[in-house]
Specification:
Length: about 180
């Protein structure tokens, strides 16, 4: 009897320890999942979340340039230029200030338009345009505009210089409810 009871006690301790460890593992796993509900599936659709989803005002810094002789684009920084450019999204009635800089090797401009076609001049909102195809921003030039995104829709920002849309100088600009 005196020999048996410590053995039973040891077995009981092992079982108890195993149950405790299992509970800790399950609880910590659940805590991790609830603490990070979106972590396993959030692929970045945009290089940056420049556009705040709240009405009010936002400042967008956008850089134009060329990635190769046949690939041009826009970016949130001079080192993050992509073709097409990043996707922006703002809430309707947001006041948007665009600070544009041409870091390319040729003149470019910026215009928020309703169709993604070469040289399109259907400006989406009053003043949603910086320079123009015929009078574009020179190399290393900076320019700015401020407009109100006052209608919900899917728009495009483009460089209006002839042929530059086809080379990738465009991006989506969403105005949401
Ligand atoms: Cu251009």
């Amino acid at each position: 009897m005196t020999n048996q009871s410590p053995k039973i006690s040891n077995v009981a301790w092992y079982i108890a320890a195993a149950i405790i460890i299992a509970v800790i593992v399950i609880v910590s796993d659940l805590t991790y999942q609830y603490a990070l509900p979106n972590s396993p599936s959030s692929p970045a659709t945009s290089p940056s979340s420049s556009g705040s989803p709240s009405a009010g005002s936002v400042i967008i810094a956008i850089y134009a340039g060329e990635l190769s002789p046949s690939v041009y684009g826009f970016g949130n920084s001079t080192n993050s230029i992509t073709s097409p450019g990043p996707i922006y999204s703002v809430k309707v009635r947001t006041t948007v200030k665009v600070d544009f800089e041409n870091d390319g090797t040729m003149p470019h401009n910026w215009a928020l338009v309703t169709q993604k076609t070469s040289g399109n001049t259907n400006i989406a909102f009053s003043k949603s345009q910086i320079a123009s195809a015929g009078n574009a921003v020179p190399v290393y030039g900076k320019a700015t505009t401020t407009f109100v995104a006052n209608k919900v829709g899917t728009y495009y920002y483009i460089c209006q210089v002839d042929g530059h849309v086809a080379l990738g100088m465009w991006g989506y600009f969403n105005v949401t409810t």
